Amino acid sequence: MVSFNKTEQTIEYDAFIFDLDGTLLDTADDLGAALNSVLKAHLMPLVTADIYRPAASNGAVALLEAGFGQLWQSRQDQNELRQQLLDAYSANIAAHSQCFTGVAQLLLALDQQNIKWGIMTNKPEFLTQPLVAQIPELKDTHALVSGDTLNIAKPSPLPLLHTAELLGVEPTRCLYIGDAQRDIEAAKAANMHSATALWGYVPSEAEALSWNADFNWQSPIDGFNHI
Questions:
Q1: Minimal CB count within 10 Å: which of 89, 119, 200, 208?
Q2: Is 19 labeled as catalytic in the residue annotation?
Q3: Residue 7 within a domain
């Protein structure tokens, strides 16, 4: 795989802000299990990781669309199915979820260099809080902002600006790392530098590079270049 950095020079930051699903945590198998429990209950074929993994960063509806396929749009019980998926996921929220390789080392290095780090995710708070609480590597986050902390979520820059405020760092001194186009758009609108997490649930590397982030990281270890 090939990646490039639009910004060539090494830049150091006062804070790193991370997306959660597909950036810090590999949550796809727990989300996929919740989806398959709904599909099974409705006598639908179960789906494999190649189907649910690309949708893992995009919320409950995206997962259900992936699972039900062309039948999704004709379903009259979409709200009920969404709630069933959320209930199944909430009941087993961290059975398989874990940090991606290199995340723990990067967070430890940030702590050792007294660089603040926080989490800003579109995941709702009722799922974010219990999930983060079960991941030991994330217990020392300096800020945790969910998709419904404010009345607007990414790609709006407001949640990122709120996270920077909680961290006590100017937005221009923050780097936001995420695996979705909305992450890069939000960072740009917040006047933050951005890095694409190519190890996450990106649709393809070629498409991810088209988002024009300041950096494109193959691994969390690439973050060491900015500490």
A1: 208
A2: yes
A3: no
